[in-house]
Amino acid sequence: PETITNTGQLTAKSVIDAILPGKNARVLGYRGGMLGPTIRVQNGSDVSLRFTNNLDEESNIHWHGLLVPAEMDGHPTQLVQAGGSFTYAFRLNQAANMAWYHPHPHEKTGKQANLGLAGMIIVETPAERALNLPSGAYELPLVIQDKRLDGNGAPTYSPSMDDVMMGYMGETIIVNGVAGAVQTVSTRVYRLRIVNGSNGRIYNLALSNNAPFWLIGSDGGLLPTAEQVTAVLLSPGERADLLVDFSKVPVGTDVFLKSNTFAGASSQGGQAFNILKFTVNKAETDPFQLPAALGMVSPLSTASATKTRLFDIGIAMEGMNGMPMRGMHTIGGKTYLGSRIDESVKLGDTEIWEFDNSKGDEPHPMHLHSTFFQVLNRVGGRNTLYATEKGWKDTVLVMPGERVRIIAQFTKPGLFVFHCHNLEHEDDGMMLNFRVN
Ligand code: C2O
Ligand code: CU
Ligand code: CU
């Protein structure tokens, strides 16, 4: 994908692009084609992104994984009407990480993102540059999505009630907007920076040769040290920063990034499938050395938490206080309502939030705006923490039967949302406001 640095124009519009090779079709995008450019920003420098909405309905942009002021966060009430513009301007003060951007208008996020509005945004710092991780041609930003395509290869979006419940799955897996994606590589270590940009699909990322690989980062940046893994479960909204070593793969051989089955996968088809084909086409010597230490993740102490909030998540069986109708996706028995303040947090406080899906039967990737958190524990279901959860997170998967506790410090004042990142659940109302002041 095209790369821009610090400043630029993003225009949400209908464009012609080919998801299936050779089949031009109508999709949405922020520049010439589907999706948007990969944006590289330097921590501490001025970022200015001019957004123009050329759709025929309201939209906006949320910077998922950037700690920006509330008025720049793309809250669902901060809309840009059809034909309007808004300049998102901010200066970041955070660790190097990989974030992504997408629309956030309530009840329209799922559609706009699915039809093509999303992109990758990468935060760079001197500290990360000093690690000499693979860069340039050896660093691959990958947006993984699934689409339902019509006969002309155009994405279609009309979820049924079942889709809203089980998750809206497409049968065509695309990477950076292309189905059947192929990437040629040399016999070197590559950095794969992956966002699950799907509406509802969870991937269990692995390599077709079953080789182990390194997980070096997740949502909020680098892990303290590299974790050797053979699979990484990635739910919608989550990111994985991987190092894959192709140096032992014979030239002329293909290796696939694939999704393995996993416990609970039955709801989304339960099959393993390929995502991206790597063709090793060139022998090269590799100077890369894995650094012994990567990011800074000092544990937030539970003793410093001033409050614990408990949220039942899932389908509301009864309307509570007349708010949700029976059968809607809720948090704490409530569905999203405009700027109603659901939770008030004191600026600077550290809190423990618990998401309780012990009675539910759907997976819920829970996402908080404005902060990164650490995952304290997971009780029930998988009963364990994962390698991705050794770093800073902004989205955590809560599978059926599970209760997951997270800890976060709230340092940005203003009104923000937290929600399920299954976009059909979010659009169904599984999103609440919290106000920090
Ligand atoms: Cu990526 Cu509020 O979302
Ligand atoms: Cu977000
Ligand atoms: Cu959900």
- Our estimate of the beta-strand percent is 35-45%
Looking at this structure, what is the CATH superfamily of the largest domain?
Cupredoxins -  blue copper proteins
Classify the secondary structure makeup into a structural class: mainly beta
The main sheet orders its strands as 12-11-10-14-19-16-17
Distance between the termini: 39 Å
> Shape, please?
globular
Mean pLDDT: 95
CATH architecture of the largest domain: Sandwich
Strand segment tally: 31
Q: Which regions have little confidence, pLDDT < 50, spanning 5+ residues? A: none
Number of helices: 4
Number of domains: 3
CATH class descriptor name of the largest domain:
Mainly Beta
Reported by name, the CATH topology of the largest domain is Immunoglobulin-like
The whole-angstrom Rg is 20 Å
Largest sheet entry: 7 strands, mixed
Helical content (DSSP H or I, runs of 4+) = under 10%
Distinct small molecules bound, one entry per kind: CU-O-CU linkage, copper (II) ion
Domain Plastocyanin-like: 21-127, 330-436
GO molecular function: copper ion binding; oxidoreductase activity
Protein name: Bilirubin oxidase
InterPro entries: Cu-oxidase-like_N, Cu-oxidase_C, Cu-oxidase_fam, Cu_oxidase_CS, Cu_oxidase_Cu_BS, Cupredoxin
